[in-house]
Amino acid sequence: MKIDKRFLLMGMATMAFASYQLHGQSDSDEKRSRRKPPSIDQLFKDLDADEDGKLSRKEVKGPLTKHFDTVDLNEDGYLTREELEKAPKPERKGPPNRNG
Q1: Residues 87, 67 contacting (CB under 8 angstroms)
Q2: What is the distance, to the nearest Å, from the Cα of residue 45 to the centroid of all Cα atoms in its chain?
Q3: pLDDT tens digits for 18-57?
Q4: CB of 59 closer than 8 Å to CB of 47
Q5: Is the pTM above the cut of 0.85?
Q6: Under 8 Å between Cβ of 62 and 35
Q7: Alpha carbon distances (Å) from 86 to 82, 94, 97
Q8: Where do the DSSP E strands lie in the chain?
Q9: CB atoms within 10 A of CB 44
Q10: I want to staple 79 with a disulfide (CB 3.0 to 4.6 A). Which of 30, 51, 55, 89 is the partner?
Q11: DSSP string of the chain, one letter each residue
């Protein structure tokens, strides 16, 4: 049985293209999931270094540092879970929603 080289090359090219498409899709899904803001539980897990149930100005990182005073409702220098729950949600940056 003789296999045509063109047929073999076409099959290999198709498999390579399909593999590339699947890999590209998983990358974009991964990037999309990283854009979501962390949950309050995740913030405390990642940032509460002294595990006192509050986030001090020294412990916070990222955009929260810029908005610390706005979120610190009682102005005690710490962010609690309750204050974070009441905090205004950040505006979503990215392409406009084309579904509606």
Answers
A1: yes
A2: 16
A3: 666 555 555 555 555 556 778 999 999 999 999 999 999 9
A4: yes
A5: no
A6: no
A7: 6, 24, 25
A8: 55-56, 78-79
A9: 19
A10: 55
A11: ----HHHHHHHHHHHHHHHHHHHHHHHHHHHHHHTSPPPHHHHHHHH-TT-SSSEETTT--THHHHTHHHH-TT-SSEE-HHHHHHSPPPPP-SSPPTT-
- Would you state the structure tokens that stand for residue 26, as one six-digit string? 């998983």
Q: Tokens 């998983």 belong to which residue?
A: 26
Contact 95, 28 (CB under 8 A): no
Tokens describing residue 98: 């084309």
Contact between 47 and 61 (Cβ < 8 Å): yes
Closest CA to 64 of 90, 94, 91, 27: 90
Query: For residues 35 and 52, what is the distance between their CA atoms, to the nearest angstrom?
Result: 28
Q: How many residues can be counted in the chain?
A: 100
Tens-digit pLDDT profile for residues 60-71? 998 889 999 999
By CB atoms closer than 10 A (0-12, 13-18, 19+), residue 47 is middle
